[in-house]
């Protein structure tokens, strides 16, 4: 008998997925997929494994390929180990005109890593450049663990990054 992968999802993760499933008609389980993957990623220190994606597929009754497609499309989801704190810097035109490139360069120098890399201690993951984080009037801006920071200066960035444990 084939074993279930659902047990790879913690009770808390299953509870959160169920919360999202209740928001949609029973036949529309795929509508809860993004939230399910986000919660599963959180359970696993910030990234998704194939086994966890398979568990989500089984839990939602979806083909695994449907889950893989979503997991590899959205920039908020990671499929390889990365730092505990996810830092995204908007580099779209509005932020670029307000100094985003200088903020990116400052972060790379300060952390000693490039975009798409994690610090050696696993503390910070500097995500691949973001096209837009929808805070165009507050640029340059970055998002750290889903919290927005706007009108950044190198000094403000230092204060934000230095607080991350």
TrEMBL record:
Catalytic activity: a quinone + NADH + 5 H(+)(in) = a quinol + NAD(+) + 4 H(+)(out)
Gene3D superfamilies with a match to the protein in the record: Glutaredoxin (3.40.30.10), NADH-quinone oxidoreductase subunit E (1.10.10.1590)
SUPFAM superfamilies associated with the record: Thioredoxin-like
Superkingdom to which the source organism belongs: Bacteria
Pfam families in UniProt: 2Fe-2S_thioredx
Co-factor binding details: Binds 1 [2Fe-2S] cluster.
Iron in keyword set: yes
Cofactor dependency: [2Fe-2S] cluster
Annotated transmembrane regions: none
Binding-site positions, [2Fe-2S] cluster: 90, 95, 132, 136
GO molecular-function term, one example from the UniProt record: 2 iron, 2 sulfur cluster binding
PANTHER family from the UniProt entry: NADH DEHYDROGENASE [UBIQUINONE] FLAVOPROTEIN 2, MITOCHONDRIAL (PTHR10371:SF3), NADH DEHYDROGENASE UBIQUINONE FLAVOPROTEIN 2, MITOCHONDRIAL (PTHR10371)
Annotated family: Belongs to the complex I 24 kDa subunit family.
Name assigned to this protein: NADH-quinone oxidoreductase subunit E
Origin organism lineage: Bacteria, Pseudomonadati, Pseudomonadota, Gammaproteobacteria, Chromatiales
């Amino acid at each position: 008998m084939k074993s279930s992968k659902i047990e790879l999802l913690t009770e808390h993760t299953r509870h959160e997925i169920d919360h999202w499933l209740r928001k949609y008609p029973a036949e529309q389980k795929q509508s809860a997929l993004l939230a399910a993957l986000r919660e599963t990623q959180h359970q696993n220190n910030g990234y998704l494994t194939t086994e966890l994606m398979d568990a989500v597929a089984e839990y939602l009754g979806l083909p695994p390929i449907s889950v893989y497609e979503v997991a590899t499309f959205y920039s908020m989801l990671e499929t390889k180990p990365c730092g505990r704190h996810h830092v995204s810097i908007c580099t779209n035109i509005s932020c670029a005109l307000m100094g985003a490139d200088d903020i990116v360069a400052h972060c790379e120098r300060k952390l000693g890593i490039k975009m798409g890399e994690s610090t050696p201690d696993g503390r910070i993951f500097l995500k691949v450049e973001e096209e837009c984080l929808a805070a165009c009037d507050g640029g340059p801006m970055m998002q750290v663990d889903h919290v927005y920071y706007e009108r950044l200066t190198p000094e403000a960035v230092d204060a934000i990054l230095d607080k991350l444990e």
